[in-house]
DNA sequence: CACATTGCATAGTGGGCACTATATATGTAG
DNA sequence: CTACATATATAGTGCCCACTATGCAATGTG
């Protein structure tokens, strides 16, 4: 007996979710056929329909499995950095400065989902739940950070988390269109302004110069 | 002679572009067939291929025709507002606080294009050109504004324009997922921080309370 | 008034894809 | 060992859609 049926089923499900996340991020949801996902997972489309019922079901399951993964990594990276501005730089490096990494693909997938949410209430609900939860976690970390640093951010923790996420998201988008227009120093200046850290020293300061990339890796959620 | 051939051709082209922009924004590029665009324009798919060669050609033409329209309206709205914080509020109202208006649909279309640009170099080039140009205009307006107001923004005009656009884009995205988490006051606080206007008064200040909506309208570019 | 050209319509055509119906093989229970 | 249950494979089916080939009526030209 190589595997029980339950084990095989669980493995198939995990493979399909991983393949779905990968391909959806790479080629876009509409650019990927159910057969392609199944093949990438070493299965056939029959398995997808047995597990998820439809392509949409697979999509929602991918979204669900994906919760928290990016934020968890982010906090880990910030924790192992020391200077205040260096920590802001670590935030940017994780969100928007990692071409061809896991976080890069997650962010493309997030955009795919966002776009679909604009027209599909079911996806919108799922994304909203995720958004509320991750903002809560960010707000907590940000308020701890602000009191440690003795700075006065421009809004209360929850609103501050919204502003920070918005700025990072917008910068990351801009970077994809026009990489030259966005760099780490710029992101740090923007973040510092929101955190109430005035005024940021110039480029000569080494805290915002190119950093050795830390290597906390993402693991695909179960 | 009702129309010369040239007039008819020009009208068909304009109709197709308008219908394409509308439908692409509404249902997504992949969610709209060439036949649907043609029908919305009162023509048939033959006209689309005669004018643009392919669906992609139509898309690029839509992108091209769309240049500047949003920024032009934005500056007009800001110009007819008086108080400094009121002007920041006017910026947000135009970018992110207008459900079911033209600017709302433009922003959805912008996201459609952004997403496609992530996988299609031809679209990416077109978007990049648009981005550079509009940042230039914004930088100019922002630096004028900053010197008029005697404030010291957190970065030079070009970088400041990038930060402002990023923040507005991110807030607008967040608003679509979770409208309650973003309001005008929050946007004004964030913008003010980037502009170096410390510290923003609380909510009781009337400058950020609900404003009568101005009515500068978009015109579909020729 | 011949007749070329243009602008668009009409009518396919082939391919891709979401989804279904059913078969098969492997594990499971009595 | 028999009989059933389950997980996935196989083989369609019908639809949608980008794109093409061609027709045709209106416009332009001498």
Rg of chain A: 20 Å
Count of DSSP strands of chain A: 0
Dominant shape of chain A: elongated
Largest interface: A-B, 49 and 49 residues
Determine the structural class of chain A based on helices, strands and strand pairing.
Answer: mainly alpha
**Text of the CATH class of the largest domain in chain A:** Mainly Alpha
Helical run tally of chain A: 10
Query: CATH topology of the largest domain in chain A, anyone?
Result: Tetracycline Repressor, domain 2
Percent of residues of chain A in helical segments? 55-70%
Report the uncertain regions of chain A. 203-222
Cα separation of the termini of chain A: 24 Å
| Total individual domains of chain A | 2
Please describe the biggest sheet of chain A, giving its number of strands, its sense, and whether it closes into a barrel: none
Rounded mean pLDDT of chain A is: 87
CATH homologous superfamily identity of the largest domain in chain A? Tetracycline Repressor, domain 2
- By oligomeric state, this entry counts as homodimer
């Amino acid at each position: 007996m190589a595997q029980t049926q339950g084990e095989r089923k669980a493995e198939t499900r995990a493979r399909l979710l991983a393949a779905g996340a990968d391909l959806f991020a790479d080629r876009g949801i509409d650019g990927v056929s159910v057969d392609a996902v199944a093949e990438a997972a070493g299965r056939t489309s029959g398995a997808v329909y047995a597990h998820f019922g439809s392509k949409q079901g697979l999509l929602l399951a991918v979204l669900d499995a994906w919760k928290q993964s990016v934020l968890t990594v982010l906090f880990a990276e910030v924790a192992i950095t020391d200077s205040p501005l260096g920590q802001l730089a670590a935030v940017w490096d994780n969100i928007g400065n990692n071409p061809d990494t896991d976080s890069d693909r997650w962010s493309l997938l997030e955009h795919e989902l966002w776009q679909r949410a604009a027209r599909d209430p079911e996806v919108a609900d799922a994304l909203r739940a995720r958004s509320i939860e991750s903002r809560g976690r960010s707000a907590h970390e940000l308020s701890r950070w602000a009191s440690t640093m003795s700075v006065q951010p421009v809004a209360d923790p929850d609103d501050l988390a919204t502003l920070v996420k918005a700025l990072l998201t917008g910068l990351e988008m801009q970077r994809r269109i026009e990489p030259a227009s966005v760099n780490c120093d710029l992101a740090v200046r923007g973040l510092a302004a929101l955190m109430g850290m005035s005024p940021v020293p110039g480029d000569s300061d080494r805290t915002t110069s190119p950093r050795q990339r830390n290597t906390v890796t993402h693991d695909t959620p179960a």
